[in-house]
Fold these 3 entries.
Entry 1:
Amino acid sequence: MAKQTIKVKINGREREASVEPRLLLVHLIRESLGQTGTHIGCDTSNCGACTVMLNGKTIKSCTMFAVQADGGELMTVEGLIQNGQWHPLQEGFKEEHGLQCGFCTPGMLMSSYALLQKNPNPTEEDIRWGISGNLCRCTGYQNIVKAVQFAAKKMAQGGTK
Amino acid sequence: MIPPAFEYLRPKTVPEAVQMLQQHGDEAKILSGGQSLIPMMKLRLARPAFIIDINRIAGLSYIKEEGGFLKIGGLTREAELEASHIVKSKYPLLMDTAEVIADPQVRNMATVGGNLAHGDPANDHPATMMALGAQIVATGSKGERVIPIEQFFVTLFTTALKQDEILTEIRIPIPPAKSGGAYEKLERKVGDFATAAVAVQLTLDASGAVASAGIALTNAGPTPIKAKKAEDFLRGKKPDAATIAQAAQLASEAAQPSADLRGPAAYKVGLAKELAKRAIATAVARAGK
């Protein structure tokens, strides 16, 4: 099938790519745009490891065609770091031991980021619902919840968004 | 998993999309939220030669009350239902349903129209829309037609939509005062299809008796199932515990589930009974408020 040229903004940078329509967004992100922080986990829309933000909303990038994102704005886990400073969520995952193998972490970070944007002061239940589209087979989620709580607290004190 | 190759079409208007459907016939598939279609394409359960992406068609996403109906645009996302003030305040059955569909990322993409047009009895909106007595607006080459929800689901993955039709709107009659609804679903984990689920919509009269009832079952047969005997039984009666228990029994008798990894058929029938009991009780409590 004929390739099409698409334009996306990823983590603030305009990029262009020539894609086959069947190319999945996650492959565009990892292979054409070289942002390998986003992981491919189950590849069946269950695990959430491939979660990215498209136009301000989290989506599973293994369940969308790259052509659908044409003209859109993407943010991946690489976009969390600002001016060399870790995002409070990244600090939280480090301080609270919110990961073991780390495979689910990029997706967890993006879902948590979207949650805190909508709800800066979430309850434990809000956090568990917020990350309910992301599977972690190591932590039992306990420390992920603590990591998000750490970030919420830090953001409330520091005024970071 | 890489889906099979296809040609990608992106119409800007409904008539343009309809024309594409006419031109490509069986070889074309509408891409709405894509949260069922894309996984099916990856598994080679669907291999359309043409994908018609309707996501850029303007004006197909809305939630509004108009002319006696709650009107939901075919492209409205589940997340938009969840965030809707109208839905939250007046349509608890719809809110309950939207909240338990898949997970947050999927709900950001998945559409109400797609959930229905896919014709999967394991989806949650089909039973909910049956309980609500909804109507489906289909737009095709001959214009719009309205399909009552009870005639919409033909069999597994088959709806009354014609080859050149697109589901463009869902209409739910605005419930009268003293109405309430509830959706009770058991899933193995967040994001799974229902092991069983029951949708209930009720209206009470001035004396507190049931004036009208809509009850339907999710994932209990090849289509969503309307529990007519349970509805008839409830009508005119005061919904006390014994009446609710009997209605739940009748609702479960309408179930025809198959055994699968989620459990044996008898278990699912038993589950439908318990979920029906809970959903009716919650709907009654909400209607009384």
Note: Chain A touches chain B through 28 residues (CB under 8 Å).
Entry 2:
Amino acid sequence: MNDTTDSPTQERSNMITFDNVTKVYPDDTVAIENISFEVERGTTTVFVGPSGCGKTTTMTLVNRLEEPTEGAVYYDGTDIQELNTVELRRDIGYVIQEIGLFDHMTVGENIATVPELRGWEQDRIDDRVDELLSLMDLPSETYRDQYPTALSGGQQQRVGVARALAADPDVILMDEPFGALDPITRTELQDEFLEIQARIDTTILFVTHDINEALKMGDKIAIFDVGELVQYGTPQEILANPANDFVKQFIGADRTLKELQITRIEDVMRSDEAGRETPATAVDGGAGVSEISTGSSVHVSPDDTADIALSRMIETDTEALQVVDDDDVVGVVTEQDIRDYRTATEVGA
Amino acid sequence: MGVIATLSATLSYLLSHFDTFLTLLREHLTLVLVSVVLAIVVAVPLGIVATRNDHAKRVVLGIGNIAQTVPTLAIIALVFPLLGLGFLPSLVGLFTYALLPILTNTVTGLENVDENTVAAARGMGMTENQILRKIKLPLALPVIFAGIRTSAVLNVGTAYLAFFIGGGGLGVWVITGISLFDTPQLLAGAIPGALLAIGLDSLFALIERYLGNDSLQDQTVVTG
């Protein structure tokens, strides 16, 4: 993971680069030590670890709320020390757990903050605010002129996210954005945010202490242990090959289950054609494809995850399921397919 | 003398000396308003400076506390050798007295602004000046205004003492009334003062409403 950071082509595709960064606070606390990694443009990277592991410090080094003691942080290829702090922060959306809405301003005015700082024209600001409110499922006519104190926690954080997105930032920093919400609202906001994220081309850094949230939200995950970056990789890589005992422990005893939760059926299944051509290879002593593709009402979609497929198999006491996409049978998946896929990732990674 | 009779005597005293009353009221109001406005002009910026560093805060609040502890009468006595008799020394005394509530409330108000709100503002790229102007001062406004209202109401009462150094005001009637056991004259000076205190408090509340916004009206009020 610490390969040729300095090559120019590499830098162009990397939005953020940490190069041997150390941060020591004035009271001699070492927050992070010699951390290097790269964040690719347009991806979501989650910093995860226990309290006090330096993940929030690492994030605040990006918008210069903290300055590195040693090493350098590059933003779009430029050392951030050479950039104007205020301009840099206006380029970077910022969402914090405590939300920090301005209680004396309306929801609309809150969202308009950065566009106003950047001197957008009023019409453009108004349109943008309406657009974001509808994106966040907060109808403009109802919510635009409300004050934040009148909103629920979940609604407030929606406004917080909208405010961070307002000026189309290249990068968004999110510090435990959903940490203070109840589990149902949290899941709701996570799902909504994943949808939004799929539509925008923004680089996101996301801090959480919740490994499940990290696995769900991250394209890449950086696992921190007291000032140290212990593993950096995709959720699949980390689940399949935890770097050490700390990571293993942090992921928890249900590592395999978590792996199944992020394994999409699409990647595991055999397409219908392949199945039909070689029905004999479908299952070890189980049902043949022809048998499965007729009549069975239990099926999964390609977007489902492997844990759901397994759960249905156990429920219905079968070893194979149809994969159905928009009423068309597109393939088949068996318990053995899932086992094989898992073994393959573990060995291959 | 019954209450009704006293009040009607007070009213007739007031009406028969209405020109004098207007003069005294004007003097009183001028003392209060000028001293409070001067105190705002000095105390709010001083409070802002005080929140910027701990040392400045200790010095400023220390001086403010001393100013508040010394009785107005003593301040008047101290100012008298320097400034003599009349309006100006009275004003200095009242101004000194009005400083502390506004100062402490400015400091408290600014310091009580939620640090996460400030962190969010800073993280979004507001300069320190913008944070002060757009975030901290508006959010601290109800608390600062509570201090201003306290000062104004305090000073309506304290301004009665201006009489002792020839500063004029409603104190003229009240203190003369006490000396002469002339209850109607005393009350003709005292009751308008009470109404003035209520009136000024409401006036500043109105100004606050005009400057601030509805969402903060319910915020708890802290006085120094």
Note: The two ends of chain B are 41 Å apart (CA to CA).
Entry 3:
Amino acid sequence: MGSLKPIDDATTQQGFMATRVDELINWGRKNSLWPMPLGLSCCGIELMAMIGPKFDLARFGAEAARFSPRQCDLMIVAGTLTWKMAEAARVIYDQMPDPKWVIAMGVCSSSGGMYDSYSVVQGVDMILPVDVYVPGCPPRPDAVIDAIMKLQKKIEREQPLKARLSGDNLDHGIGSKTFVRAPNTAVSTRGSHAVLPPGESRP
Amino acid sequence: MSTLERVQSALAAIGAKPLASREGTPFFSIEPAHVREACRILRDVCGFETNTFVTAIDHFPAEPRFELVWQFLSVQHNDRVRLSARVSGEQPHVDTIGDLFPGTQYSERECFDMFGIVFDGHQSHAGGLKRLLMPEGYDHFPLRKDFPHQGIEPDKLYNAWFKQRFERHEAEHADV
């Protein structure tokens, strides 16, 4: 029988629920996002308001902001990313354990915004794979909460077990040769571990 | 004895010429080779303990192209004085005054970063002259007049930057 065992009486008496492993994992992941608050400018203030009691991100299970990237799985780039800061941002992203997601909060991090300048990264998708872009300058906390809900919907569609069994390389870190600039769409389909159909390789 | 006269007589030895200054601050033009000597005189003879800033003005396309400006403050005399020197070339060189006025090290780094002026003998953190505001590996000097204000090929900057990181990573993990 391999690792499969018949259910004993005790289990059946206590009751059980049938589900797919993917569903279970995704359910856990999407409801316990731990944000890495990369507050680089004024967007950071809205980010704090979002986590605080008035907007209460805890309703969506994502209020546990940690300042160590080792404990985070959701990077929220809130504000203007300069080229000087770009390397630090990428190092923080690399230090976050998989699976991980990125929200570009505000126009500065989405596209450079009004800083069409030599010193500003014209969109963090030049250095990070972004999952959700949030427009606004700065966006209201509601908008970022909406982005988190969109991200939760995206996480629901993922197939972590299939990715693990097919040996898909989840690592998009520093040594990854697969990292390219993500397409600049409203909701990018490229995540840190989006699963591709068999036989298709990453761009 | 006014500040202008006092400083002028002290700087006469190196041939400093007084320049017109709009708000009345004593302003002298010196030769780039005499920078250290002038600063030493200002500090030791005239009592200017502090350097306020080191900066440059790009007079492109006029030659000599760059005008370097140093401003000094004397707290004990409540005086300010400004020095100016013209340097030319794509990579102009001038002596550092970082050892005379330690606070100028950041100003000199910024000036190098923005204008590409090399301060010979600069030794902040003993690592020599490094960029301050722009990342390492950036090839351009943004405050020069011939630099486009939107920047030059950010994609190229990113690619070079990522390639550098990738190669460093490969080198570090070569034995694995």
Note: Residues 82 and 120 of chain A are 4 Å apart (CA to CA).
